[in-house]
Amino acid sequence: MNDAKPEPTLSDPSLYINRELSWLAFNTRVLAQAQNGDLPPLERLKFLAIYGTNLDEFYMIRVAGLQALYRAGVQETGADKMTPAQQLAAIRERLHTEQSVLEETYHAIVERLQAEGVRIAPYAQLTPALQQRLETEFFERIYPIIIPIAVDATHPFPHLNNLSFGIVVRLTDLHGTLRHGLVRIPRILPRFISIDGIFVPIETVVEHFIGDLFPGYTRTAATPFRITRNADMEIEEEEADDFLEILEEGLRSRNKGSIVRLECDAGADDDLIMFLNDHLHVDEADIYAYHSVPLHLGALWQIVGDKALAHLRLPVYTPRTLPPLDNDDLFEVIEHQDALLYHPYESFEPVVQFVRQAAADPDTLAIRMTLYRVGPNSPIVQALIDAVHEGKQVTVLVELKARFDEENNLRWAKTLEDVGAHVVYGIPGLKVHAKIAQVIKRKGERFRSYLHLATGNYNPSTAKIYTDVSYFTTREDFSRDATRFFHFLTGFSTHTKLEHLYMSPAQIKPKLIELIELEAAHGPEGHLILKANSLVDPDIIRALYAASQAGTKIDLIIRGICSLRPGIEGFSETITVSSIIGKYLEHPRIYWFQHAEAVYISSADLMTRNLDRRIELMTPIYTPELQARLEQILRLQLNDNQLRWILQHDGTYRPVSPDGHAPLDSQTRLERHTSELHDSSRTKQNHYVKKLADKLLKEG
Questions:
Q1: Helices then strands (H, E): number in the chain?
Q2: What is the pLDDT, as a whole number, of residue 238?
Q3: 408 with 375: CB under 8 angstroms?
């Protein structure tokens, strides 16, 4: 009898890291930044806020989804073959274990802030004089807004919206009769009350005045709490003629989803939490009780963003506009040469000017764009409105299914439609995530098309903190594809294939697999570098494993989720996976192959949802100087020994250290280089990118 274990195949579950656990490992790396004592205290607090905001979304979407799969009896959800029950157990264990690290980190930052003269302190720790001032503040600005709610036989437990924050209380009357109540603290109130350099959590102020909210009753117990609901909207587009109507209903239903998490104070009265959960029905494993950490970590942005405390953050970098795009006429520049920007080191302003100048130019005939996340005060949308007023033909695809930006996008879509733009509200069954703008002008007797293609959103605010690539071109082959792409978005088409650009769901994945296989054909002489936010798609991972088996060198720069397991003998020995976590959110998708004729930039991550269920674009960059710049950015990051983490075969990450080499922070290095070039270089962009590439290669 042969008891030998069968050789694993490329589909073996052991070769794949669970995506949810990989995401948690990413958020742990964010938390590690908050632990970094070399950073200014508010910079550390910022990463704590990001950690909390990330965790909110993770519970609202991923954990809620796993709970639904578990209730439905689903047994497998991914290439790793972990069941929903196994994933939920692993998630809960990890988060409860990590909670002590979170608490220690928060308290260490608070101590550091106190040494700098900044306190985060409850009402009870204030001096009598400050308490008196806060009493006035409470009755003038808080008391009229908050809502005390009785809970008894005649007052049913209220509906609580997603991410509701409040206080649950137990009271007694003059006869000793027990009563329960809630105090809802609306989001329009600040999370912290600022007074003389002290940030006072609002719930500690409200709790002190519970007696004034329930006159005649005495408080015997109280604790703040916060709930999280399932916020993943399932929109059946085919069931409604009016997609806007069903989206608005979906947004309303987001506050009615099942409750998936309860957060409270660790010192809370057990009977009070039991009363609360008798109405909420949260699994005990999804109750998180924090020791002296304010609920809703994301609200720490209020303190981080306090202008009076700017000295406790890293210096703000001012993005630069470099030659030749500092020219007054942007379109004249890109008529003569392709241009590439790397945000936020280079300013997003040329992208805004691309639309503004087109709107103002009498020769502009049409402007077409896709909008995914544009922000609440968008200069680009305003420029599109101005273009309509100037008589231009304006066509805009506004993706209403952009998660957590639906309401903002819905408002902009209605505004654009009201002024007369042609607005497309997404594609049934597919989310449009592509980033493209096309301007068509009259040039004498001819029409000329100008394109902007990008890896990031048309959002000037996030462009200051997300790294992304912008590419301007007037290539006629790309322009024909762009026109075909917009016709696909606005008309009826069962099949659209682009000739020079690549569009998912039909083209990007096959092209990437083809490029990986072509590089693998060179064996050990082959080399590829892929930079993305996430790598989950099993087909791409299997292609990378096969390339590694051929001896091809593979460097992956994956900021967040990575399901590929590097360093497995016989499968992934030539693969490294790096993650850069720093001041800026690494967001571009750049795909480099040593033996390919182009370097590719894309809106698409290496995830099944992007490659199979979204409209995405991938753009080949053929200009040698621009290729060189993209390559050197990748190589610089692969040499980073300050912000880079290396994925181990067991799914853990190890921070990279200098090990005797000079410290290299790729983000700071790019800030400095761009500033130096802005101050000294007034040459053509081709010379500029070559100079930057040479310098990065030499120093990296």
A1: 21, 27
A2: 40
A3: yes
Kind and range of the H or E element at 359?
helix 349-360
pLDDT at 76: 74
Whose tokens are 């040469």? That residue is 337
* Helix, strand, coil distribution of the chain in percent, nearest 5: 40, 25, 35
DSSP-derived secondary structure for 153-206: TTBPPPP--TT-EEEEEEEE-TT--EEEEEEE--TTS-SEEEETTEEEEHHHHH
Q: What pLDDT, on the 0 to 100 scale, is given for residue 236?
A: 42
Task: Read off the tokens for 235.
Answer: 């929109």
Kindly tell me if the per-residue pLDDT of 172 is higher than 60: yes
Q: What is the pLDDT of residues 329-380, one digit of tens each?
A: 999 999 999 999 999 999 999 999 999 999 999 999 999 999 988 777 889 9
Q: Which pair of tokens denotes residue 196?
A: 């003389």
Residue type (1 letter), 313: R
Q: What is the pTM of this model?
A: 0.91
Measured distance CA(131)–CA(127) in Å, rounded:
6
Alpha-carbon separation of residue 284 from 66, 96, 99, 263, 274 (angstroms): 16, 12, 15, 11, 10
- Strand-pairing partners, residue 655, are 645
Rounded CA-CA distance 695/291 in Å is 49
Residue 251 pLDDT: 45
Strands, E assignment, 332-430? 339-343, 364-371, 393-398, 422-424
Active site residues: 433
Q: Is the bond preceding 344 in cis, omega lying within 30 degrees of 0?
A: yes
φ/ψ bin of 81: left (φ > 0), alpha (ψ from -120 to 50), beta (otherwise): left
Contact 641, 661 (CB under 8 A): yes
The CB-side HSE value for 488 (13 A sphere, CA atoms) comes to: 20
Model pLDDT for residues 301-332, shown as the tens digit of each residue: 999 999 999 999 999 999 999 988 988 899 99
pLDDT of residue 426: 76
Radius of gyration of the chain (CA): 27
CB 287 within 8 A of CB 262: yes
Q: Domains, the chain, ranges and CATH?
A: 39-312 (3.30.1840.10), 330-490 (3.30.870.10), 502-699 (3.30.870.10)
Cβ contact 205:123 at 8 Å: yes
